[in-house]
Amino acid sequence: xxxxxxxxxxxxxxxxxxxxxxxxxxxxxxxxxxxxxxxxxxxxxxxxxxxxxxxxxxxxxxxxxxxxxxxxxxxxxxxxxxxxxxxxxxxxxxxxxxxxxxxxxxxxxxxxxxxxxxxxxxxxxxxxxxxxxxxxxxxxxxxxxxxxxxxxxxxxxxxxxxxxxxxxxxxxxxxxxxx
Length: 179
Known about the structure:
Elements: E1 14-19, H1 25-36, E2 39-42, H2 43-50, E3 53-57, E4 62-65, H3 67-80, E5 83-86, E6 100-105, H4 108-117, H5 122-133, H6 136-144, E7 150-154, H7 158-174
Parallel strand pairs: 1-5, 1-6, 2-5, 6-7
Antiparallel strand pairs: 3-4
Helix pairs in contact: 1-7, 4-5
Region (LID): 117-127
Binding site for ATP: 22, 24-27, 118
Subunit structure: Interacts with small ribosomal subunit protein uS11. Not a structural component of 43S pre-ribosomes, but transiently interacts with them by binding to uS11.
C-alpha cells in the first residue's frame, strides 16, 4: 500500500540532491531541471546572494551557512513543490519537504582529480575525500529521511549523469501526490 504524503497540496515533487563537493550535484541538477521543468535551487548560490550565513571560515575557505535562515527562506517555495535542491549537506532540511533524496557518489580517484582542479588543497581536500570514503553523506541522508526515499547514485562520468537524469525524469513524470 502506498504511503500517504504528509503534504498533499503539492502538485510537483521536491527532490534533494546531495553528495560530497565534486560529485556532480550542480551538473545533474541543471540537466534534471531542464528535462523536468522543476526549479533548481542551488543552496550555495542562495546563501551568497541572500547573505544567509554567519561569516567566512578561513580554514575551510567557505561561508558558515545559517541553517535556520536557509530553511526560513525556502519554506514557501518548498510548500509549492517542484524543486530540486542542490547542497552537500542534508540533515537540517525538514523531512516533510522531500519526496526523493539522492546522494551522488564518485570514485575517490576521480573525485580527488576533480577537487584538485577546483583548487582544493590541504584540509579542505582531505576532509572531502574522507567524507566520500566513509559515505558520510549517505549515512546522514539515511538517518534524516525515510530510507525508502533515499537513493545512492553513481556519478563518475557524464554517462552516469545522463542515465540518472533519464531515470529521474521518468520518475517525475509518473509522480502523483496521494490524496
